[in-house]
């Protein structure tokens, strides 16, 4: 009788361990792996869209996706100091991609930020940028001009921008801005899904008007 009870206890314990293992595996798949898979899928779609954009434009040198990060609230200032980080870069062969921007002040966008907030793409000559707008970074990469299109999420927040740049001596054609605007819309959709849990703070458009 004791042996029978012992065997029953051991069998019950094994069944419970198996059920717990299955529950943990299910939770991991449903709540962890799915998020990771979703992020990988979004990254793949974004990279594919950037590759297509570079191919369609032809003479562009680089495309960068830069995302606005959490605001840093500075005491004594009316507006928080927002910052941005580069998430994706694509370049033509044998061209320098340049450094990834990491936690740089959004004030570097001051020359064209009002247009982005107004949901307008901007065509900008690098030579006309003010020193505070990251002109040195553009000069170091031999960038002559660029088009920046805003990434506006489904709630109407500016969450970043797509920058397509041309080396000095090259200029975008008349169709470039339309292609960049269309690609930016898709990239924003993919990126919004990817960043839904990490974008803790966003720019409300009215706050900069």
Total number of strands: 6
Structural class: alpha+beta
Largest sheet: 6 strands, antiparallel
**Biggest sheet, spatial arrangement of strands:** 3-2-1-6-5-4
Number of domains: 1
CATH superfamily: GAF domain
CATH class: Alpha Beta
- Fraction in beta strands: 15-25%
Oligomer: single chain
Structural descriptors:
single chain; disordered C terminus; 20% strand; Beta-Lactamase; 209 residues; 6-stranded antiparallel sheet; alpha+beta; 4 helices
Could you walk me through the main structural features you see in this protein, from its secondary elements to its overall organization?
The chain has one domain: Beta-Lactamase (2-Layer Sandwich). It is 42% helix and 20% strand. The chain contains 4 helices and 6 strands. The chain has helices at 2-57, 113-117, 135-140, 176-195; strands at residues 62-68, 83-91, 104-105, 122-125, 143-152, 158-167. A 6-stranded antiparallel β-sheet has the order 3-2-1-6-5-4. Strand 5 and strand 6 form a beta hairpin.
Brief description of this entry?
This protein has 209 residues and is of the alpha+beta class. The protein is built from four helices and six strands.
């Amino acid at each position: 009788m004791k042996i029978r009870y012992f065997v029953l206890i051991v069998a019950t314990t094994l069944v419970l361990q198996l059920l717990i293992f299955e529950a943990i595996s299910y939770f991991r798949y449903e709540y962890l792996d799915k998020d990771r898979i979703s992020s990988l899928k979004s990254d793949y779609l974004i990279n594919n869209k950037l590759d297509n954009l570079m191919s369609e434009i032809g003479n562009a040198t680089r495309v960068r996706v830069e995302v606005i990060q959490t605001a840093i609230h500075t005491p004594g200032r009316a507006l928080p100091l927002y910052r941005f980080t580069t998430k994706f870069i694509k370049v033509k062969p044998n061209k320098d991609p340049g450094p990834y921007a990491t936690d740089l002040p959004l004030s570097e966008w001051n020359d064209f930020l009002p247009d982005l907030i107004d949901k307008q793409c901007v065509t900008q000559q690098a030579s006309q940028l003010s020193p505070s707008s990251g002109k040195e970074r553009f000069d170091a990469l031999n960038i002559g001009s660029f088009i920046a299109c805003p990434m506006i999420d489904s709630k109407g927040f500016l969450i970043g921008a797509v920058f397509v740049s041309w080396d000095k001596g090259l200029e975008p054609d008349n169709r470039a801005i339309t292609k960049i605007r269309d690609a930016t819309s898709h990239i924003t959709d993919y990126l919004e899904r990817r960043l839904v849990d990490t974008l803790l703070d966003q720019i409300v458009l009215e706050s900069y008007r």
